[in-house]
Amino acid sequence: MMMKKLSYYLIAGMLLFSCAGVSAQSTDTAKVFSLEDLEDIVFLHHPIVKQAALLSDAAKASVLQSKGEFDPTLKSAFGRKLFGHTDYYNNWHNELKVPLYIAGADLKVGYDRNVGVYTNPETHTTDAGLMAVGLNIPLGAGLLIDARRSTLWQAKAMLNYAEADKVKQINSVWFGAVKDYWNWYYAYREYTLIKEGLDLATKRFKALTNQALLGDKPGLDTIEASITVQDREIQLAKSEIEVKNAMLVLSNHLWNDKGTPLELPKDAIPQQAGEQLKIPDRILLDSLLGLADMHPELVKLRAKGEQLDVERRFAQEKLKPKVNISGALLSRRTDFGSYVPDYYDFNWNNYKIGVDFAFPIFLRAERGKLKQVKFKQQQVNYDLMQSGREISNNITASFNSLTAYQSQLAVQVQSINNQQALLAGELQKFDLGESTLFLINSRETKLIDMKIKRESIISGYQKKLAELYYKAGTRQQL
Q1: Vertex 265, ends 261 and 271: CA angle to 5°?
Q2: Taken in order 254, 257, 259, 261, is the CA torsion positive or negative?
Q3: By the 8 A CB rule, do 466 and 179 touch?
Q4: d(CA 316, CA 281)
């Protein structure tokens, strides 16, 4: 009678253990923290994701700052000296300067009133003052590109750099979060399987203890069963710590809208993962390889190349001589309603003109700067070539690894089925007195290890799948 009872516990426990996946599906879904839940929290509240968004804003602010070089400026200066009833000078200078985007020219509108006994005759005006409207144009260096246009164009080139850096940081955060999630999944599944094995060993130990008390079984079987229980208790304690640590690591990615760190609830469990792995096909690989050209790292390098190209053009522009011509039409007119004789009004006979020329004889500073920029361009080109090749190969390598996971899982599932058949057969032999408890424990322990290995393969596959998209510079849409 006791032998039948023992067999009942052994077979019932084995069936319970073999159907662990089914029982897990009936778990309260309210406790499930899915990968989609993690995605919502990470992309809404993660500090690094928010920080990455600032990169684009900072680049736009840099462009805005560069555009400030083209802002019109209004200047005014007044000076007067009166001493011993003598008006030495009474000077008032006003100017509106409007930088033009084309040709590096400046449009200038000015009004000067310089009177007094000792005022320089070159700048002396009547009491009504003198108006001037003119241009300042660089005909040599600065005609095609100057410092302000170079700064603006470089800042615009860095917009793409900042956007790519933003995408790269966000992808990195998400990839790290996905890996931590599936590490938690594996730790939790390992804990579940060990706990089910402990429950089964405990039931067997109690049944054998009752049999030993009645004299149906020797005391050595009780000791054997007790050792198995103790060993699995140790494994369970270790696995429990690993689950807690995995939950803590995953909690690093959890924040609320107020910037307060969150932690996973103690009763939270990961989502279920099936034994059927959906391996990406060749079409997806070709698609990812096609998108590799838009990888954030390559976009950053190309943006850096654009910036260096602007810098090279500016350095090359400095090899030209500096020839600045300025001219302005003059008039005594202070408003458009008053009468001013034609010979004192704006016309081609009333003007002032000037030419500035400068040219460094050896151009050593300019030639040295140009060489430095060209060397940097070569470095970026080499980085672009090597990075492009590495990205393509990394994508292909990750894809190849995924196909290996599919065959590994298929073999592992078949091995588990075979091991369960062996365990069932061993239990039947035990009923007939042709087997020992040691063999049953050994086969059961092997079955637990094989199921843990299966979960390891599933976890590894999911992490490798996330890595495939990360290597391609994007992320999987859940």
Answers
A1: 110
A2: negative
A3: yes
A4: 50
Residue 141 zone, left/alpha/beta (φ > 0; ψ -120 to 50; rest): beta
> In 5-118, where do the E strands start and end?
32-33, 73-83, 86-99, 106-115
Strands 269-270 and 351-358: unpaired
Answer for the pair 450, 415: CB distance below 8 angstroms, yes or no: yes
Give the pair of three-digit tokens for residue 2: 């006791």
Q: Are 217 and 276 in contact (CB under 8 A)?
A: no
Helix (H) or strand (E) holding 356: strand 351-358
Q: Which two structure tokens, joined as six digits, stand for 341?
A: 């004789």
Q: Which residues, given as ranges, of the chain have pLDDT below 70?
A: 1-30, 215-219, 275-276
The architecture that CATH gives domain 2-65+150-306+377-471 is Up-down Bundle (1.20)
Count the neighbouring beta carbons within 10 Å of the beta carbon of residue 184: 26
Q: Give the relative orientation of helices 2-18 and 364-431 as an angle to the nearest 10 degrees.
A: 160
- What pLDDT score was predicted for residue 287? 87
| Dihedral class, residue 322 (left if φ above 0, else alpha if ψ from -120 to 50, else beta) | beta
Q: Identify the CA nearest to 13 among candidates 203, 277, 260, 292.
A: 203
Q: Measure the CA–CA gap between 399 and 402, rounded to whole angstroms.
A: 5
E-strand ranges in 271-339 read 322-331
DSSP 8-state secondary structure symbol assigned to residue 294:
G
**Amino acid 216: pLDDT:** 65
Identity at 165, one-letter amino acid code? D
Are 361 and 398 spatial neighbours (Cβ–Cβ below 8 Å)?
A: no
Run of H or E residues at 130: strand 130-138
Domain boundaries, the chain: 2-65+150-306+377-471
In the three-class reduction of DSSP (H, G, I as helix; E, B as strand; rest coil), residue 98 is classed as strand
DSSP bridge partners of 331 = 131
